[in-house]
Amino acid sequence: MTVDLWDGALIDASVWHGRAGATSRQFRYRTTYAALPVGALEAGNLALRPDRHGLWRLRRRDYGWRDGRSLSEFIDAQLAPAGLDHCKTTLVTMPRGLLHGFNPVSFWLARDVGGLRAVLAEVSNTFGECHLYLVRHQDNRVIAPPDRLSGDKLFHVSPFLPRSGRYVFRFDTGPGRFGAWIDWLAADGSTVLRTSMTGHARALTTASLRGAAIRSPLQPARVSSLIHWQAAKLFSRGVRYRTKPEQIRQRRSEVTRTEDENV
């Protein structure tokens, strides 16, 4: 049976990073994300419930305004100014593990009867900071799987990349699968870093959630360790380490520029 992300799902994902240039490198790891319809999540109608104890947990204060307030109110406040307040939303995220929580990026998917209209990418770094990129077409038409949308990079994430340049986003929201591709382009237009998260969706049930949590109770800590290990490898290869700049005060930006879909 095909699973719709808007019904709730687990996504068995493969995450890939590919760096080009003088120090080219690739690494890949597997992880499990949850697709959580926000309304059902806050109503307590899903196997994973907010602010409950367990091997895998989801805390409201890890998202949005990060103060424990309603997730529905947060995402509605982000979509309404763009004329998208009629959309239903699903949060695609990695749940907290037994001892640790870390999400390099979570995706808030917004759709209506026509299809996917916007994605709010909530990007976090290892310094505990975050930035929101609202990805949409300027006229709010449906985002199709081949569409590539770009916007300026305004948030410092990796100490091995400058804050300048721009991102190019692409999404495939199924049914039965999820895919997100984010490329970083340098100021000269060259693609230096490509990333992707792709995987098949399966039903989110109490049994499937328990099984995934038992297999990987420390999943976020493992992902964080892998990121630091790859950073150490880049440093050992002589890649320049960049001191973290003071972050731009703007916490949210929009990605609306459409790239050539045949690139």
DSSP strand (E) fraction? 35-45%
Give the termini separation: 33 Å
Percent helix among the residues? 10-25%
Number of strands: 12
| Coarse structural class | alpha+beta
- Helical region count? 4
Number of separate structural domains:
1
User: What integer is the average pLDDT?
Assistant: 91
Largest sheet: 12 strands, mixed
Q: How would you spell out the order of helices and strands? A: EEHHEEEEEEEEHHEE
Rg computed from alpha carbons, rounded to a whole number of angstroms = 18 Å
Largest sheet strand order: 11-6-5-4-3-2-1-10-9-8-7-12
Unreliable spans? none
- Please tell me what the overall shape is: globular
Describe it.
The chain has helices spanning 38-43, 71-79, 206-215, 219-236, and strands spanning 9-19, 25-37, 88-93, 105-112, 115-124, 130-136, 149-152, 166-172, 177-185, 191-203, 252-255, 257-258. A hairpin with a 4-residue loop joins strand 8 and strand 9. 16% of the residues lie in helices and 36% in strands. Strands 11-6-5-4-3-2-1-10-9-8-7-12 form a 12-stranded mixed beta sheet. The chain has one domain. The protein has 263 residues and is of the alpha+beta class.
